[in-house]
Specification:
It is a single chain. Helices cover 53% and strands 10% of the residues. It is mainly alpha-helical. The strands form two sheets. It has a three-stranded parallel beta sheet. A two-stranded parallel ribbon has the order 4-5. Helix 1 crosses helix 2, helix 1 packs across helix 3 and helix 5 packs antiparallel against helix 6. It is globular and about 50 Å long.
Length: 135
Amino acid sequence: MTSFLDTSVVVRYLTGEPPALAASARALIEDGTEVLTLLPVVLAETAFVLTSRYLMGRTDVVDALSDLVTRENVTVEGLPVDVVVEALALVRPSGRVSFPDALVWAAARAAGQDTVVYSLDRRFPSGEIDLRRPS
């Protein structure tokens, strides 16, 4: 059986609000007996909710998501944890790289050397990826 976490569970876990729902999320995630899977879109959506609704700073969100994805019982669908953590680190220094772009970067990096990312976004991270701009 594969168990996926929805954004609502992750947000409750990371914010502690509201307390009753946060306790349920904490019990599920911290129990550690079940492998829980996050989709990259859940990470991106969680980052959006935490920065826009909860007004958390980007550094705090990066730290919280990095701590979550490095738990022994949490995986990110289709991506190695070290690549996800590296992608999240791209977001930390400034507002230059968005959370979704960092996760696209992670997917491209995990896909291998023959991967190309087409982007019109001048801020898209290009390290170790063949980044092209459509003409």
